[in-house]
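Notes from hallway chat w/ T.B., transcribed later so I don't forget. T.B. wanted the structure written out for a chain they're using in a teaching module, and asked if we could keep both sequence and structure tokens in one place. Agreed to drop them here.
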Amino acid sequence: MPSFKEHNSNLPSVNHHITTNDHNGIAKFHASTPAKWRRVGRHVASSIVYSTSTMPPSLANNNDISTHEHLVTTSSLGLVRPNGTICSMVDLGPGNKTPYMHRTQSLDYGVVLVGEVELILDSGEKRIMKAGDVVVQRATMHAWRNTSETEWARMMFVIMECETLFIGGKKMEEDLGSKKNELRDITKYEMEFKRSVQHLKIFMTNFLVAVIKNGGEHLDAMLSHSEMVCK
């Protein structure tokens, strides 16, 4: 999926700040950048804050920063970083509900920053989480729903890989539900949108050509022709 700095939520923009130490051990800011958002579902967007690839993290020579920047640039980060961590933010559109239950091999800390969301477990149990509420997600099947029909919600997650979990001898496998199908639907939607934009360009080009050449004459016929092209 292509990245984009802004999406259509009405939530405040955010910045990511990373600190480091100079050669004298004095604290400095390494970087301060606007969050970059990536669509991961209809009316759902995520922004990666940071990731680490060792446990515990090694900060020597800013190696962790270089590794993180490489992973982001090459789109190599998954939902869980093996032997590491991922910190991310997720925006949920009004009334949005993840269309699938999912589980990752990880221990997650989830914090509601803005709005109100419902956490749904595969047992049928549910909890309403308001701004400031925290959930400790321990490799369980779950889904999320924004309870508001008019306002966006924002959450932050810290995701840490965990050891393989067995319950009653059964391995609790990673289960991303219908995510692949959902992503295919998003790709189809984006292709249809691009096609509509192309049709609009054709229409506007024909319209302007008609105005320039005919001085406004025969516009009705031109409009009818353009509508046929755009169908």
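Follow-up for T.B.: Residues 1-5, 179-190 have pLDDT under 50 and may be disordered. Might be a good example for the class.
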